[in-house]
């Protein structure tokens, strides 16, 4: 599954590794609607587009 930019969306473990957080923290943020937007695949797996993660990180800088 590649996007128009040619990169595959990130898995939850990849996002957590990049952010240095646990999976439980990611899901807690998601429940509170504070996590980056996710794509839900038909099998229920979540993915995060690289552009969305970058946008989300930039918005966190502005909020600090």
Radius of gyration: 12 Å
Calculate the mean pLDDT score and round it. 92
| Cα-to-Cα separation, first versus last residue | 34 Å
Distinct helical segment count:
3
Q: Which properties best describe this structure?
A:
mainly alpha; 3-stranded antiparallel β-sheet; 64 residues; 11% strand; single chain
Commentary on this structure:
- This protein is mainly alpha-helical and 64 residues long.
- The chain has a single domain, classed as Multidrug-efflux Transporter Regulator, Chain: A, Domain 2, CATH 1.10.1660.
- The protein is 48% helix and 11% strand.
- It has helices spanning 12-19, 23-31, 50-63, and strands at 10-11, 39-40, 46-48.
- The chain has a 3-stranded antiparallel sheet.
- The model has no long low-confidence stretch (mean pLDDT 92).
């Amino acid at each position: 599954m590649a996007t128009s930019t040619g990169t595959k969306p990130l898995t939850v473990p990849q996002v957590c590794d990049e952010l240095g957080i646990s999976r439980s923290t990611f899901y807690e943020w998601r429940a509170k609607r504070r996590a980056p937007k996710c794509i839900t695949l038909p099998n229920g797996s979540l993915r995060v587009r690289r552009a969305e993660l970058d946008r989300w990180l930039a918005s966190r800088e502005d909020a600090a």
